[in-house]
């Protein structure tokens, strides 16, 4: 229903940087704005007085969206999942566990709901798509499961891991039985065994992969080598960290991704 609402409210000629929006996009919201918290407002509705909307953004990059259609005797519509930042550090993509997708731009104490292409809603109705921050206090969702979760590699040896153009993102999935792992290094798919031990200890071994050649394989080679050094793990929210033996700092960090 929300997607139908969005279509009815859009107009032709939407541009990325519409006049009067420069104040919104001047800074990198991801690094300079205290964005975790609860945002609330009433969004437009095609056939009701409005949609009372509450969005909770957590520091572990999980979210919860609650929508109540005013003057309708229906249950609240709830979406939960994880969100990721666009490269510009201004916009986020929220993907729930069923594949539902919503886009927002993060401002100082405000969230701007975007259209399906990631653009701000232009014109006189723009202010009707703004949610305002009502609280800085949020509760952290449950920890993601180690097994049967798509873990996207985001950091390795203290450095961010970007997704190469025209290549798959580096990731891994531990199978439910806890003895097998598979994934991708970005170019080649890999597979192997894993052993779970008391005290959150984990060992990867017998890793093998396909043998494709890609332009930049340095990250992939380091990824495969790193896995064989892992001794233990830690999960907090949607973040998985892997540690080497007797190391206090993680050698790799992953983000749980809810696939569509």
Multimerization state:
single chain
Strand content: 35-45%
CATH class of the largest domain: Mainly Beta
> What sequence of helices (H) and strands (E) makes up the elements?
HHHEEEEEEEEEEEEEEHEEE
Q: What is the molecular shape?
A: elongated
Which structural category fits the helices and strands? mainly beta
* Major β-sheet profile: 9 strands, antiparallel
CATH topology-level name of the largest domain:
Lipocalin
Question: Helical region count?
Answer: 4
Distance between the termini: 18 Å
The overall pLDDT, averaged over residues, is 83
Count of discrete structural domains: 2
Helix content: 10-25%
CATH architecture of the largest domain: Beta Barrel
Low-pLDDT ranges? 1-26
- Report the strand count: 17
Write up what this structure looks like.
This protein is mainly beta and 260 residues long. It has two domains: 2-135, Beta Barrel (Lipocalin), CATH 2.40.128; 150-257, Beta Barrel (Lipocalin). 10% of the residues lie in helices and 42% in strands. The protein is built from four helices and 17 strands. It has helices at 2-9, 22-25, 29-32, 218-227; strands at 37-43, 51-57, 62-69, 77-85, 91-96, 101-107, 110-113, 130-135, 150-156, 159-160, 171-174, 180-184, 189-197, 201-209, 230-236, 239-244, 252-257. The strands form two sheets. Strands 9, 10, 11, 12, 13, 14, 15, 16 and 17 form a nine-stranded antiparallel beta sheet that branches. An eight-stranded antiparallel barrel has the order 1-2-3-4-5-6-7-8.
């Amino acid at each position: 229903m929300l997607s139908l609402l969005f279509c009815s409210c859009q107009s032709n000629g939407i541009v990325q940087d519409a006049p009067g929006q420069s104040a919104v996009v001047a800074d990198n919201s991801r690094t300079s704005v205290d964005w975790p918290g609860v945002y609330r407002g009433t969004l437009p509705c095609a056939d009701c007085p409005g949609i009372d909307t509450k969005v909770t953004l957590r520091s572990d990059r999980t979210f919860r969206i609650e929508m109540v259609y005013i003057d309708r005797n229906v249950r609240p519509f709830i979406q939960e999942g994880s969100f990721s930042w666009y490269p510009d550090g201004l916009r986020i993509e929220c993907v729930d566990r069923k594949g539902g997708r919503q886009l927002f731009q993060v401002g100082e104490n405000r969230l701007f709901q975007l259209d399906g292409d990631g653009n701000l809603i232009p014109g006189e109705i723009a202010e009707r798509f703004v949610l305002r921050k009502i609280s800085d206090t949020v509760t952290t969702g449950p920890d993601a499961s180690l097994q049967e979760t798509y873990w996207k590699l985001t950091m390795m040896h203290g450095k961010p891991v970007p997704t190469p153009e025209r290549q798959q993102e580096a990731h891994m999935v531990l199978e439910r039985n806890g003895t097998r792992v598979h994934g991708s290094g970005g170019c080649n798919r890999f597979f192997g065994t894993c052993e779970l031990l008391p005290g959150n200890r984990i060992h990867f071994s017998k890793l093998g992969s396909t043998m494709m050649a890609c332009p930049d394989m340095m990250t992939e080679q380091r990824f495969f080598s790193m896995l064989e050094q892992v001794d233990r793990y830690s999960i907090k929210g949607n973040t998985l960290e892997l540690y080497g033996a007797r190391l206090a700092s993680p050698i790799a960090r992953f983000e749980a991704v809810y696939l569509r």
